[in-house]
Known about the structure:
Layout (H helix, E strand, L loop, with lengths): L1 H15 L23 E4 L4 E3 L3 E7 L9 E8 L7 E7 L3 E5 L5 E10 L11 E5 L13 E4 L4 E3 L4 E6 L10 E7 L7 E6 L3 E4 L7 E9 L5 E3 L3 E5 L1
Parallel strand pairs: 2-8, 10-17
Antiparallel strand pairs: 1-3, 3-6, 4-5, 4-7, 7-8, 9-11, 11-14, 12-13, 12-15, 15-16, 15-17
Amino acid sequence: MRKxxxxxxxxALLFSCGGGGTDEPAPAPVAQNTAPSTPTLxxxxxxxxxxxxxxxxxxxxxxxxxxxxxxxxxxxxxxxLFTQIVKTNEGTTPTFSVTLEKGKAYYWRVKATDSKNAxxxxxxxxxxxxxxxxxxxxxxxxxxxxxxxxxxTVSRASVTLKWAASDVxxxxxxxxxxxxxxxxPPTTKVVDNKTLTFYEATSLQATSIYYWKIVVKDNKGGExxxxxxxxxxx
Length: 234
């Protein structure tokens, strides 16, 4: 009887001390890969009138915390939503040489992707104009949205619409037509030849989707139609 008790006690002691387990170390945690930093555009500067259509796009190099190799994806488009992309490029250096059409407005952006497919966000979008032949006036750039954000929901019966626009012809005076309504595309012009870049929309219907767009005009007959933006009301 005493021998049986001793054997049971020894067995319990072995298990309590880890007997019968494995001596292999636990696997080391796998380091999480992070995306490279977002590139910042350098040249051509925003809203620049370039003296040539042969350009060298430049940006600041991204940083990768794990020191993975980085590839840059460059997009050039004729609209600021990049639905009309005319040039793309992939490269390992923060520059891209390209030849574009003369006398046109272009928009460009860059993102960085490391060798493990972790990608940064796209850079901010810059625009530029290529020098044309015998061009007297350049069209304004497409307007950019400030507020409200696309598809944002507003909780009041009024909202302040804000936008921005620019023109490489520094002496040009810009004015704006604003179209607003619940149909897409909006056809009701609520502002004509406005010089300010904001508008207080009032008496909005509840639980509705509103669409709006800006037409930018210069004082030389140039006109650029912006894309359609939208917001919702509670």
